[in-house]
Amino acid sequence: MKPNKLTDRLLSAPYLLWEAIFIIVPLGMVFYYGLTDRFGAFTMENVVAIMGAEHAKALWLSIALSLASTVVCFLLAYPLAMILAHMNVSQHSFIVLIFILPMWMNFLLRTLAWQTLLEKNGVINNILEFLHMPPLAIINTPAAIILGMVYNFLPFMVLPIYNSLVKVDPNVVNAARDLGANEIQTFFKIIFPLTIPGVISGITMVFVPALTTFVISKLLGGSKILLIGNVIEEEFTQAGNWHLGSGLSIVLMVFILFNMVISAIFDKNGEGNML
Amino acid sequence: MKRKFLPIACFFAIFLPLLSGCGNAPSSGNNEVIVYNWGEYLDPETLEMFEEETGITVIYDEFETNEIMYPKVETGATEYDVLCPSDYMIQKLIDHDLLAELNFENIPNAKANIGSQYWEQSKEFDPENKYSVPYCWGTVGILYNKTMVDSPIDSWSVLWDETYADNILMQDSVRDAFMVALKRNGCSMNSTDTVELEAAKQALIDQKPLVQAYVVDQVRDKMIGNEAAIGVIYSGEAIYTQRENPDLEYVIPKEGTNVWIDSWVITKNAPNKENAEKFIDFMCRPDIALMNFEYITYSTPNEAARELIEEDDIRNSPIAFPDLSQYAGLETFRYLGADADQIYNDLWKEVKSK
Amino acid sequence: MIKTTAQKIYVGLIFLFLYAPILTLMMLSFNASRTRAKWGGFSLKWYSALFRNREIMQALWNTLLIAFVASLVAVVIGTIACIAINRMGRRARAVMMGITNIPMLDAEIVTGISLMLLFISFGLKFGLGTILLSHITFCIPYVVLSVMPRIKQVDASVYEAALDLGASPVKAFFKVVFPDILPGVLSGYLMAFTISLDDFIITHFTKGAGVDTLSTKIYTEVKKGIKPEMYALSTIIFVTVLLLLFLVNKTPQEKSKLQN
Q: What is the distance in angstroms between the Cα of B51 and the nearest Cα belonging to chain A?
C-alpha cells in the first residue's frame, strides 16, 4: 500500500484515542492513587505497604501457589499436547474447541462445582467411601486452590504448546533420527527447543491470572487463605482504601511487567500465540 | 475445516442474542425506584406486585455485607434510592450525611404496623427515628448439629474447643467475627479499647486452625449438608435450616450476643424519593411483610404481619421472636468512627492473613 | 499398543478432569432438592422455573447483549487499528502493539480497578454503558491478535492494482483486502465474544445498580446458595453449543469421505 500520511492518521486516530482514554489514563489513575495519600500528597507508603507482614505474606502465598499451579499445568499439558499433536491433523480445530468449550459454562459455576465435588460430604468423598477408601480432605486448603487454578487455566497452557508442536517440521525430526539421535535426544535437542515460544506463552497465560485471582481462593479456600488479589479486592470493595489498593496494584504490575519482559525475550516473533 | 466452522459459529454468536430477545432491555423511563438490598432478602413476587399496583419499575441490586454496600453509596457512582443496611451502618451513613429524612406521611403503614419496641431499639443508631424504618431483626447465635456434638452448647467458647477442629464455620465479616471474640472474652462488642481488641484478635488467630471456612450466607447450605458441626449464624436462617435438617439446633450463647435491626433508609441524593417512600410503605403492608417473612424466615418487626402467621409454633417461635429479657449481655452494634473502623479492618486483615 | 492405550487413558483422565465439574452442574440441574448438598430425586422443574425467573432471563439478556455489542465494536475498532498499525514505522508499531496488549496481559483485577477509577473520576454513572466500554477495551487485543497475522499476509500489490484499475480505496479494501482477512476477523469476533461472555472480574468492578450479567448474578448467589435455575440455564447453553459444534464438525468430515 502506498504510504499516505493523511489517511494513515485518519485510520489510526480512533484507536489511538481509545487506547489513550481506556488504557493509558486508567493506568495513570492507578499510579496517581497509589502514590498519594488521603489528602493528595505524594507518598510511597501505599507501595511500601507490601513489606508489611500481612501483605508480604499474601504476596508470597500468591507467588508460591501460582508458581506451583504453573508447574503442574506445564507437566500435565506438555505430554497431552504431544499426544494430541500426533492425532489426525484434520481434527485440529476440534481439539482447540474441546478446550474452549468449557468456557461456555460460566467460570464461577465451574469453580463452584469443584466445591461440590471436593466437600467433606461431596461427590468425590462419597465415591471414595463407597470404595472403602480414605476420604480426601483438601477443600479449604492451598491444595484446593492450586487445583482450581490448574483446572481453570490448563487450556491456556495446552493450546499454545499444541500450536507450536503442530508447527514443528516433521522433516527436521526425521533428519535428526536419520543422523542417529534416539527418541530422548530428538526430544530434548530438537522438539523441545522448537516449542519454547509456546511454552513461554503458556506460562505467562497461566501465571498472571493465577497470581492475581481472588475468586478461586475465595470459593475453594474458604476465605481462610488470603492472596494478594483478595487483599486488593477487599481494599476497594470493603475497606474503601483506594490508595492502599492502588499501591498494592502497582506492586502487582511490576511482577507482571517482569513476566512480560521475559516472555518478550523468548517469543520475539509472537509464535506462541493461542490462535 | 476451520474456515467452515468459523462462519457458522459467528452466525451463532451473532444471532444467539437476538433469539433470546424474550428478556427485555431495562426501561429507561423515569418512573422507577432503585433498591439496594441484602442478597435474597425479600420475596421477588412482592416486587412484581409492587410494579403492578403502582406502575413503578423496580431496579433491584443486592449486596453481601454492609461493608460492601457502603463504598458504593459513598462514591455516588451508582445512584440508589432505597437501602437496607444494618444498625451501625445506618449510623455511619447518617454521620456522613448520606441519608434523607423520611416523610412519614407518605409511609403510613410504618407507624401503624411496626411494633413500638423496635422504634425504641432503633433510637440506638437513629436517635429521633427520622431516617429509618425497621424491616428485619434478629440475633446472632450458634447453629449446631445435635448428632455431631457431645453435649448441648450454650457458650461462644465452644468455637475454641479443639474437639471440633475443622468442624467450625465462622462469619466472614469484620464486626461479626470480632463480636464473637469480644463477647467470649467478656467485653463489649462495641469496644474501642486497644488492649481488648488486641486480645480479641489473638483469640481469632488462635481459633483459625480450628475453623473450616469463613463464610457469610453459605453457613446455611453447609450446615444443612452436614459439612460442619457448629456455625455462627443469623437467627433468620435458623428456621429455614431446621426445616431442611431437623438435627440442627439454634442457641443464643449465655455471654450475650448482637441484637441487630436491618432498616429501610433513603439516600440523600435519591433520584426518586417519592417512589422510594411508596416502596417502603408497600413493604410495611401486613400482607407483604408476611410474604417476605415466609420467604426469607427472618423475624419481622411488623406486628400486624406476625398476627397473620398461621402456624402457632412459628408465630411464637423462641428463635424468630425470642423474649429478649431472658438473655444477658445483649447489645446492638454502634458505628465507632473512621479511626476505629481502620483499627478493626487492620486487625481483621492480620487474622485473615495468618 | 501399550503406549497408545496409556496415551488414551491419559487423555481420558484429563478430559474427565476438565468435564467432571460440568457433569456435576448438569446433574444438579435435575436435582429436585433446592440445596446443593442433598439429592432429592430427578426433576425437570428448574427448567420450567427458569423461564419464569425474570432476574435470570434479564441477566442472560444483558450478558448476550454486552457480548454481542462489545465484540462487534471491538472487531471494527480492532480491524481498523490493525490496518493502521501495519502501516506504521517499526518503532511506532512496537509501541502500539505493546499498549494494545496491556489489557490482555495485565491482571484483570488491575484493569477492572483502573477502569472503575476512570469512570468515577469522569462522573460516569455505572450501568450498562460502563460495562460495555470496559468489555470493548479488553476485547480489542484479542481481535488484534487474530487479525494482525492476516493483515501482514495481504499482498499490497493486489490492493495497489485495484487502485490502478480505478477502484476507490474503500471499494478496493472491501473487494480485495477484506475477503483475505475475513477468517481472522471472524475468529477474532468469536474469541472476543467468548471472553466477554465469561468475564466476571472486570464486570464486577464496573457494573451499576440492577445491571447484572450472568457472572455477577452468580457471584451474588454464591453467598446465598445458587438458585438451581442457574444450573438449568448453564446446561441449556452448554448443550446447545456442544450440539452446534458437533454438527459443524461432522459435515465436512463426511464430505471428505465422499470425495475419497
A: 31
